[in-house]
Amino acid sequence: MERDKQYKKYEHLARYEGLPCKYVYSLVLQNRIDEVIKAVRQELSSADEALEIAKALSNAGHTKEALSVASHGLTLKESKEDLGDWLGSFAEGQGEYALAQKGYIAAFIDDETLKRYKKVLEVTAEQDREEQKNELLTFLRTQKHGYIGHSVEIFAHENLFDGAIALIDDKNSNLYSDALQEFMALALAHKPVWVIKKAHKEAVDVIEAGVAKRYDSAIGWLRLARSAYEANNDLQGWQICLDALRTTYRPKRKLMALLAEAFQEDDLVAQTQKPLRIGF
Q1: Of 113, 142, 171, which closes a domain?
Q2: Cβ–Cβ under 8 Å, residues 229 and 221
């Protein structure tokens, strides 16, 4: 009885303070489940509120109602990441794969991580999996991207290097340099010419900025370029590139020293390949 009084007091306080989520939660505590379902549709306005109530219902053993509330929450405003992930995992555990797919897709749309991409396909019926995969990839291609790291990772996972490159080359996109280098290391065996051009541009941009303490970064890009030249069976082209850099930036002594240290084996090979001059 005392507990019931406390719950009732909690309900009235939530109403008085204008806290709809707390009000609905008080109904869960009182096991007034039919009223909960009705109030969810009338009172809640965000996905996070729906998630809180769905979890409370789940904890109270009302699995069907928890799934219903979470599914409704996907129609509400604000981010669906947390709700979608929870619904996906909870519904999957209940064998409700259509609902799980719905949840994971909602989370994916808000933040398209490789993990969510895999989960969507994992809970999709085998006969529908290819179509679903194409829909997700089309979504990635048509987004107005800012940061594209997750999308690039997904395309690389599918060995769709052209799709990733299209995103990277879009002027409206951005990608952290370490993520770009990681992708280029994967792509150099498949798209060596693109890697050569991109790595060379990144290196030159660093050099042209004129900050000597960042020249190590330029060397990193040039190592990628060299690997791509090698993958393209064109080490002669790499030597030409290296010689051109030295000619252009000869006054930058720190850079010259770093180039000599990083690519000394290439210099030795170039020296042995020079024709001997015999004087009389």
Answers
A1: 142
A2: no
